[in-house]
Write a structure and sequence with these properties.
By secondary structure, this protein is α+β, with helices and mostly antiparallel strands. It is built from 5 helices and 17 strands.
Length: about 350
């Protein structure tokens, strides 16, 4: 056997060992919960590409906050894109016999399972790494009705006061009133369309004036001008089922509901996102529909995203395990979870912020 062949064989063997060891490491570090969360503080991360989710089950309902890199409003605040609330009927999460929520690190998704007498249901929450699409796949051994609501707390313009302005570029010295301006949300055929369109005037204009650069304003790049971001909630066999309102964590909100017309063993929901600098909403919506059509025709998206996550973990890893020192083991696990959250913004237009994606 030549030296060249030996080197190649050793390289392949080490590559296999690295992949196997790293993926076993992820399986060891999976987050597993056997009870539901009390509120959003007990949420689990999930994401891919440049989309991040907070995922939790509360009072029998699956909830998700949605965020994406680059969704900055007129005040340069990174806005969340809304909240999803999904209820099932029959519902294994309402006083069910068993409950399990697991962050499957090596494959990059959240799996939620529940049983209640003869009812067995699995919900898979995942994000397409290569397209800005959130998927919620429901599979049950009984015919199931899925009631999905898109919820927004930006139904009206809202004053931001005091320390709230730390979230924007006015910080502690705002000039005059600062408002988070309302979004646009409406039913469109059998889906929910939502978006935020930045108005003409923004904190960019205030900054240019403050810095005495108005004579050079036309030469400066304005990242907030013409920015539109939002998405479309849709699902197989879903139809519009009216609106509702409520209050969560002290914030009033409004919800837009979709339901499937008849019970199914498998129901697939998708939340298609789109962010672009466009002079009109019509042009932005054209881009959104294009993304939606590509997502609908990609039957291998989950496996493709799963393969990316497998490769992400195989590239490198730090293995910290200790039978004698639980702090070492905890540090190792925290590192894996931190890497996962960085991976959720691997393709983001903007880098991950120090306090979150």
């Amino acid at each position: 056997m030549s030296i060249k062949v030996i080197v190649i064989w050793i390289g392949l063997s080490l590559g296999f060992l690295l992949t196997a060891t790293s993926q076993q490491r992820q399986a060891d570090e999976n987050l597993v919960w056997t009870s539901q969360s009390q509120n959003a503080a007990g949420s689990m991360p999930c994401g891919g590409g440049d989309v991040g989710l907070n995922v939790w089950v509360e009072d029998g309902a699956l909830l998700c906050y949605i965020s994406r890199s680059g969704t900055f409003d007129e005040n340069n605040t990174l806005l969340k894109l809304g909240r999803l609330r999904v209820r099932l009927s029959p519902n294994p999460f309402d006083d069910g016999d068993t409950f399990k929520q697991e962050l499957v690190l090596k494959d990059g998704y959240v799996k939620i399972t529940g049983t209640k007498a003869d009812l067995k249901t699995e919900v898979k929450v995942w994000v397409d790494v290569f397209k800005p699409v959130v998927h919620i796949d429901v599979n049950s051994n009984q015919k199931t009705i899925v009631d999905a609501g898109y919820e927004s707390w930006r139904n009206d313009d809202r004053l931001t006061k005091g320390k709230e302005n730390n979230q924007n570029s006015y910080k502690w010295a705002p000039r005059g009133e600062v408002k988070t301006l309302k979004d646009s949300v409406a039913f469109q055929k059998n889906s929910v369309l939502f978006f935020h369109q930045n108005r003409e005037q923004s904190v960019f204009d205030v900054t240019v004036k403050q810095q005495g650069l108005e004579s050079r304003k036309g030469d400066l790049y304005n990242p907030l001008k013409d920015l539109v971001f939002g998405g479309l909630l849709q699902g197989e066999g879903m139809f519009t089922a009216g609106t509702y309102s409520g209050n969560y964590a002290g914030a009033p909100f409004k919800g837009w509901r979709l339901k499937n017309s008849k019970g199914r063993n498998a129901v697939a929901l998708s939340l298609v996102l789109h962010t672009a600098k466009e002079p009109t909403v019509m042009e932005w919506e054209r881009g959104l529909k294009q993304t939606a059509s590509h997502a609908a025709n990609d039957k291998k998206a989950f496996q493709t995203s799963r393969n990316w996550w497998n490769g992400f973990w195989a590239r490198s890893f730090i293995d910290m395990r200790s039978k004698n020192d639980p702090l070492v083991a905890q540090a190792g696990r925290n590192y894996q979870l931190f890497r996962y959250m960085l991976g959720c913004n691997a393709f983001g237009k903007y880098p991950t912020k120090f306090n979150g994606g």
